[in-house]
Amino acid sequence: MTRVALGPFESLFLVRQYEPSGVSPESESLAKMRSMIGGHLIQNLFLGADRMDVANELASVFEDCSQTNWDAYGALPLSQEAFQETLSFLRSMPLDLARPEVVPEPDGDIALEWKGTGGRTFIVSFDGTSAATFAGLLGGGNKIHGTSRFIGSMPQNIQDILLQHFSKSKSKAGTT
Q1: pTM of the predicted model, to two decimals?
Q2: What domain range is 119 assigned to?
Q3: H-type helices in the chain, by residue range?
């Protein structure tokens, strides 16, 4: 088995170790993705534990859903482009945001989902085409949906919604 080396700081970041179980091109691709995540995490010391946990969850979901029919209902494999966009979005998240869940989608897209109190939910989905598609139930009957161009940094409209409804400070205050 091959161990992906992340460098001298890996123990400080608790990045999950990946030991590929195959020698196929897909296995090699997954090993490269893991290595890339580790490198980005080390380069960005300011990420914080929540985002590192989400990045590890993203890598795990990508690994688990990288084959056709991963859900036993004909799902497409998650695309590497969607993986890259989701990782880039994670790196651009404000530190005050609550931790999202990583959600694989059967069309090969990857979504991040925030859940708050009072039925509040917000989902941002990435398909690898420089678009962030979003939908949310924001309480009081307020619903929102749309698509924003995504090229490396979080679109302002999405950031505003997330900070208003899903920041850590609001979660601690019980107002999400």
Answers
A1: 0.71
A2: 10-173
A3: 10-13, 25-43, 49-64, 80-92, 156-166, 168-173
